[in-house]
């Protein structure tokens, strides 16, 4: 298995936010994690990226165990994250934000290639390359955050609520981008509160409630599931 | 006559202010990037001054080489202190680093007192004999070269932070540490580098002051406090604001010393800060980081 998380537990001080979470992802697939606010989705993502140390459990990625590695080692191993709330560096230019996304790449030639690719995939970023990231609109910042996460050339991309706070037309654009990334061979883990969007494009889905995986299945199956429809799709 | 005194003290104040800028910029870097208040920063400056002193007196090195030796020595020591003392508490509330660095400050100052005794010593730059007068304003080659060196170091620092990969990483961490980790920046390495740079700048300033005035084990405390005033006035992480505030403090101290009384020279910066807090609470540069 390309990504295999087993019995992951994590928390903040005495608050336990994840209870024995086990999740798998096949290479080249889109796997989604849905759940309401506070379910532990971001906590899970931060554990994968090494920003938060899990208290127990294992994370196996691309044939090696990565739990306990420092974040920069995990990025170098091919796993990168576009965090919730975009978190671009507001007082750095668009170009600097992208360059920093490629900091784990040793070859400067590769970095400039990827920079060109980012600018051709996201023309709006090319237009604004010398503007401060803080001056971009929400949608533009989201594009920048995704483009930045791609600069390291990840094999696995984590997207934490990329549709949050965006207008429906921009959300459609984000969906197109996610599919394109998957088609390019990158595996995607997508965390969403917008469950309909997530389940429509996911190959496989997990439902997280207060730190527990309570349900999992194919995206298309969960779309038809009664409890999911009631709790997350509002129908 | 009054005008000559005024111009002389203004010049002295600017030189002093440039030296303060070196010290305060280092403190500001640590505050902005590690979110750590380093109250031992003045001791970095003191230790740097002693390294400079022994480089000239014991090793007989030229003044400028001694400055470089002090920068290298204190830079290295700064990185070690970061790793051993501050790393374990990074990310914890500010009170942790405040208490810890207060302790470190006291320990280092007392260690220096024990090792070097309280006697003031002077660094012989060999440049103070060369002097010239312009319309009654007195300037030595020593002070002029110190001024030039300060400007060079500040420009180097600005260039480093603006254009190098490490400098950009420093800015990224200051703006959003988690985003920096997620992008693959080795945050721990940047912490070491930041402390090294901060220590090196303080050491350069200490050696300069040791040549213009004296080197003493207790020289750090007043400088720490003034540096905190400067970064409060100038704005954390705002290079221009910090330089501006540093020169302002240098001028206030020098002009206050020349026109009011030299005995209270360390008090003027604090009075200025109190006045500014009352009159302009948003800071001189008017903004956060
Ligand atoms: N930095 C933090 N400190 C303490 N508790 C936190 C922190 N971040 C999240 N939590 C708690 O952990 C739980 C899971 O949060 P999170 O992973 O952000 O959920 P989600 O991303 O699904 O909305 C929540 O109960 C939240 O209050
Ligand atoms: Mg979240």
Properties at a glance:
heterodimer, A: 235 residues, alpha/beta, Rossmann fold, six-stranded mixed sheet, 10 strands, 26% strand, B: 289 residues, mainly alpha, ABC transporter involved in vitamin B12 uptake, BtuC, two-stranded antiparallel sheet, 73% helix, binds adenosine-5'-diphosphate, binds magnesium ion
Structure description:
The complex is a heterodimer of chains A (235) and B (289). Chain A is globular and about 45 Å long. Chain A has a single domain, classed as P-loop containing nucleotide triphosphate hydrolases (Rossmann fold). In chain A, the strands form two sheets. Chain A has a six-stranded mixed beta sheet, with helices on both faces. Chain A is built from ten helices and ten strands. Chain A has helices spanning 41-49, 71-76, 94-101, 108-121, 123-127, 138-150, 168-183, 195-201, 219-224, 226-231, and strands at 3-12, 15-25, 30-34, 56-61, 64-65, 79-82, 156-160, 187-192, 204-209, 212-218. In chain A, helix 3 (94-101) packs parallel to helix 6. With 235 residues, chain A is an alpha/beta fold. In chain B, strands 1-2 form a two-stranded antiparallel ribbon. Chain B has a single domain (2-279), classed as ABC transporter involved in vitamin B12 uptake, BtuC (Orthogonal Bundle), CATH 1.10.3470. Chain B starts with a helix and ends in a 10-residue tail after the last helix. In chain B, helix 5 (141-163) crosses helix 6, helix 6 (165-175) packs across helix 7 and helix 9 crosses helix 10 (239-259). In chain B, 51% of the residues are buried. In chain B, 73% of the residues lie in helices and 3% in strands. By secondary structure, chain B is an all-alpha fold. The interface between A and B is medium-sized, with 28 and 18 residues. The structure holds adenosine-5'-diphosphate and magnesium ion.
